[in-house]
Structures are given as C-alpha cells and as structure tokens.
Design a protein that fits this description.
mainly alpha, 2 domains, about 160 residues, about 70% helix
Length: about 160
C-alpha cells in the first residue's frame, strides 16, 4: 500500500481545532454516561435472562469441542426456557412481569408453608419476618386478579 502523502502535513491550527471539537464531544458524552439509568424492570429482566442464555450458549459451544459434546445437550433446555420466558414477557411486559414475579412469590410461600407443616417439629419454623408470607400471598392474589381481568379479548379467546 502506498504511504499516505497527507500524514504529517496537516495544518497545526486545523489539527488543534479538530482536537478541541473532539474533546467537547467526549465531555458531553461523559456527562451523559454519568446520568443514572431509569429503572425499567422489564429491560432489567430481559437483560439478566439474556446474559444467562449467553452464558449457557457459550458453555454449550465449549462442550461441542470437548471430549463429551453430548454433555452440552443438558444446556439446551434452560436456553429454550429462557427464550420462551422472554417471549412471554414481551407479549405484555407489565402484566407478564408481574405474573412472573408473583409466581416466584407463590413458590417461596409454598416452600415456607411446606417446611412449617412438615419440618417444624425437627428443625423449627422457617425464619420469616412477620407479615412477609401474607404479603407474598397478597401479591399473588393481585397478580392473579389482573391476569383474569386481561384473560379474554372481545371475541372471548385467551390472550395470555
């Protein structure tokens, strides 16, 4: 490739002006980066799920080049489940995110209740602050009511 004949021949005043303009743009960018990110639970959830899917995929790819490539198949199901969950959340982000969170509350309440019912005698009750279990149940009831209210469209078909 032929050497660039303009290298080193730029007017020093023009180069200084270009440098100052670049510094101004970088300063504006730096100020914008210092602004906090608006909390958006849907985007944060999708970001976390996407990161987990990426990690699983990288593990899957690494296993393909290993002595046991079939071990990577165990990572396919969680990758597919993440894909399905993201698609579900995307259909109605506000409602479906609330339903997903309520499902977590329902599972946690169920585990606490099962432990207290079956294992309190031997291990003692689960160390849960007063009112936490009731709050979880209330969030589940509220999410369930919202889901039922949004369940049918004008033609009576399910939309969830």
């Amino acid at each position: 490739m032929a050497p660039d004949s303009t290298v080193g021949k730029q007017d020093p005043a023009a180069a200084l002006q270009l440098l100052q303009a670049s510094e101004a743009e970088l300063s504006d960018l730096a100020e914008a980066l210092d602004e906090p990110i608006k909390p958006d639970e849907y985007r944060l959830a999708v970001l976390a799920l996407g990161q987990r899917a990426r990690t699983l995929f990288r593990g899957f790819i690494a296993l393909q080049d290993s002595a046991t490539p079939t071990a990577g198949r165990a990572l396919l199901r969680p990758m597919i489940e993440i894909n399905t969950l993201i698609r579900f959340l995307n259909k109605d982000p506000d409602l479906h995110l609330e339903l997903w969170e309520a499902e977590g509350d329902r599972n946690a309440a169920s585990i606490i209740e099962e432990h207290n019912e079956l294992h309190t005698e031997r291990w003692g009750p689960m160390p849960v602050m007063d009112g936490v279990l009731d709050e979880k149940r209330e969030r589940v009831r509220n999410a369930r009511a919202k889901a039922l209210a949004a369940r049918t469209a004008g033609d009576g078909r399910r939309v969830l």
